[in-house]
Structures are given as C-alpha cells and as structure tokens.
Write a structure and sequence with these properties.
The chain is of the alpha/beta class. It folds into two domains: 288 residues, TIM Barrel, CATH 3.20.20; 91 residues, no CATH class. 48% of the residues lie in helices and 13% in strands. The protein has 17 helices and twelve strands. An eight-stranded parallel β-barrel has the order 3-6-7-8-9-10-11-12, surrounded by six helices. A two-stranded antiparallel sheet has the order 1-2. A two-stranded antiparallel ribbon has the order 4-5. Strand 9, helix 7 and strand 10 form a beta-alpha-beta unit. Helix 7 runs parallel beside helix 8 and helix 13 packs antiparallel against helix 14. The protein is globular. The N and C termini lie far apart (50 Å).
C-alpha cells in the first residue's frame, strides 16, 4: 500500500484509510463477522489508518473496533476517533468522554484525536470551556498522541481555527464536486503548508459519485481512452492532490474494499493528465446543474423526532433529477408512505423543530428542503395516494410472495 509521509508527525499513513461509519450491517446492527474480515483484510494489505467516532452505528462502532483491534493488529494501525463536542457542557465532560472512548476502544492511547464537526461557533464555545488546555494535558498524560479537528463550515472559518492551536491534523470533506465547498482545496493547501495531516472524507459524496451516473456524466467519462468506474475516477481525483495525506472511505463490501485498495496503491500525486482534469470539470458541472440537495446521506440528522427518513427523502428527490427518474414519486409513496414498512417517514411529517438543522454538517435548511420534497414528490392529496397505492400494491406484493414461497417449497421437494 502506498504510504504518504506526514511532515509534522513523521508518520507514514496509508493513502487509503478505513472509515468505520458505514460498516456492513445485519438486522440493523453491525455485521461483526463481515466487518471484521474486511478490516483485517484491509490491514493485511497495508491500510494503517482506522477512523471512527462516538455516533457511528448508534455508538457501537468504537466498541466493535476495541473488540477486534488488539495484539498485533493494534500495533499495525493508527486509531482515529473524535470528541463529540456537542455533548461537552463543561471541562470535566472532555475528560469523561476521552476516558470512556479509551475504554471502549480497549487502548491506552488514541493516535489521532479529532474534535468532531468543528465550525466557527462550535469552536468558540468549546474553546471557552478549556479545550486547548485539555488537549495539552491529554497529550502530556499520553492519552492522545496527535490532535486534530474535523471541519464543517465555510472556508472563512477554517484558517482561524488552524491558527488557534498547534494542531497535528484536520479532516475535510473533499471530492471533485465539493472542490470549493466548505474548506475546499484552499483549506487543504493551507493545512498542508502548516505540515498538518490532511484527511479527506466523503470522497464519493456519500456514494453519489459511485455507481450509476447521470447520463450526461456517463457520456463524459466515456470520452476517456482509459475506462474506469465512477468510484475509481472519484478516488483518483482526491489522491491526485499532494495536500491529501489519506482518504477515508466507509467501505461495506469486500468488492468496494478491493477496488479502493487497488486505486490507492496506484494513483500518485499530480499524475492526472490535463485532458483527464478537464473531464472532471465537465462532470462537476453536470452534478451542479442537476443535483437539488447537497446531502451526503451521513445520517447525522437522524433520528428525527417524528420519524422522517431525511436522507432517504433527499436521495429520492436527487434521483428524480439526476437520472430523470419518473418512478421517484411512486417509490416515495411506497417507501415513505409506510406501505412497505407500516411506518410513515415522508417529508410532510416535519414539525420544523430544528433538531436536524443543528446536527447537519452541510448546514442544510432541512425543514425548508423537506417542504420542497413533499411538494414535488408527494404533491396534492398525498394521503389519498397512500391509501390508493396501499390498496393496489399490497395485494400484488402478497401474491408475489405467495408464489415465491410456493415455488421455494416445490424446489425443496425436488
């Protein structure tokens, strides 16, 4: 695995890091056997940076990593986790959370400790509570090796945070569509000039830059003499930047992992050609033109107090315009109207409580966007549409399941 040397710390970090935010699941829980195999496979093939955080998988991610990263595997990796700054009300809370995280991760120290989802106002608040003094103390005690912060705010807020403390690392949203969003390329260059580790997150924009592409974007990629998957193109763009030390990916299948390992081992900084970079610019214009909501489906907005599947609603809305999906409205009724799962989760349930707005890393005005989704995908008479679709869809589904079960029984007899 290609390693990139950190000027400030001297560490050599793998170009690909494993993000433990989107581990494979079974029945709503981490599929421990599959996740363990994937993480061990990644480490055995050179990945040495594993990233997690308190909220991931409902609080289970850190504990799971603590269970599997012991002995020789702990010695092979740098563990990265984050302080949940929104839960910090006083100085003592910082010490309490760090000690709990050390316990869950079953380790004596955390290699890279990030302050989670920092922005101008959150940094000013937690700084007043003694954050910088706490970090100095934790490093002196050996509980933290290196300090950093993950960032979600405007680029104007980024530099003052960098300059406020002797940070070792930062974590930025970075992909070819969001090149100039949040801290963007300007922030990556500034942190790199300070010798900091620069970790790229959301390289696939929550999966939006992998898999199916809008027709116009697919036609642009087809112009390249070298044929690559959309995910391959996306990772190449990130790792082409010399400012990026490591890109973390939330891989939840062995196929994804193997593809990403191959790409990360191959692409070197400044290796993309001028013609390839022009293709990226053209594809970026397509996404900026078609995509309605800049959501990465990170799920920080969940759980919604009234049960709205916010990322799911936004995903369907984007699909309608990215892929000219004429069935998006029907899918919205079936999925969000409670027909398939007996629980309504559509955008029209929003009570404008604001909880999701405070949690959203993208600073989206979620209630306003949910109203837009409800108007477009739900439309007038939405409740009547649910009743009608339920009356039509469920007998069809019941008939299909009955036929499938009958065929299954017949096959077993044979």
């Amino acid at each position: 695995m290609q390693k990139r040397t950190v000027k400030k710390t001297g560490d050599q970090l793998s170009a690909l890091g494993f993000g433990a935010m989107r581990l494979p699941t079974k029945n709503g829980m981490i599929d421990k056997e599959s996740a363990r195999k994937q993480i061990y496979y990644a480490i055995d093939h050179g990945v040495n940076f594993i990233d997690t955080a308190v909220p991931y998988h409902g609080g289970a991610s850190e504990t799971f990593l603590g269970e599997i990263l012991s002995g020789e595997y702990r010695e092979k990796v740098k563990i990265s986790t984050k302080m949940p700054q929104w839960s910090i009300k006083k100085y003592e809370d910082m010490e309490k959370h760090l000690d709990q995280q050390l316990q869950r991760l079953q380790t004596d120290f955390i290699d890279y400790y990030f302050i989670h989802s920092m922005g101008k106002s959150s940094f000013e608040r937690i700084q007043k509570l003694g954050l910088l003094e706490f970090l100095d103390k934790a490093k002196k005690e050996g509980k933290i090796k290196y300090t950093g912060f993950s960032f979600h705010d405007s680029k104007d807020a980024f530099k003052p945070i960098v300059d406020s403390y002797d940070w070792d690392a930062c974590m930025l949203q970075f992909n070819y569509v969001d090149e100039n969003s949040q801290a963007g390329i300007e922030g990556a260059e500034y942190a790199h000039s300070k010798g900091m580790v620069v970790i790229a997150m959301e390289p696939l924009k929550g999966g939006r830059l992998a898999g199916n592409m809008p027709e116009r974007a697919a036609q642009i990629w087809d112009k390249s003499e070298v044929k690559r998957t959309p995910a391959n193109w996306a990772f190449r763009w990130v790792l082409n930047h010399q400012e990026i030390t490591c890109v973390i990916s939330g891989m939840n299948s062995m196929d994804q992992l193997k593809e990403n390992l191959e790409i990360a081992n191959e692409i070197k900084p400044n290796s993309l050609t001028e013609s390839e970079l022009e293709l990226y610019s053209d594809v970026k214009l397509v996404f900026n033109d078609l995509m309605k909501i800049n959501c990465t489906t990170c799920g920080y907005c969940l759980p919604c107090p009234v049960g709205i599947d916010i990322p799911g609603c936004f995903d369907l809305y984007n699909d309608k315009y990215l892929f000219k999906d004429r069935t998006a409205g029907v899918t919205y009724i079936l999925r969000m109207g409670g027909i398939f799962n007996d629980k309504e989760s559509h955008a029209g349930l929003c009570m404008d409580c604001g909880k999701c707005v405070r949690a959203c890393p993208q600073k989206l005005e979620i209630p306003e966007l949910l109203e837009e989704v409800s108007r477009d995908l739900g439309g007038r008479g939405f409740n009547l549409k649910i009743k009608f679709m339920g009356a039509v869809a469920m007998p069809v589904m019941d008939g299909f399941l009955s036929l499938r079960n009958k065929f299954s029984r017949s096959s077993k007899k044979d």
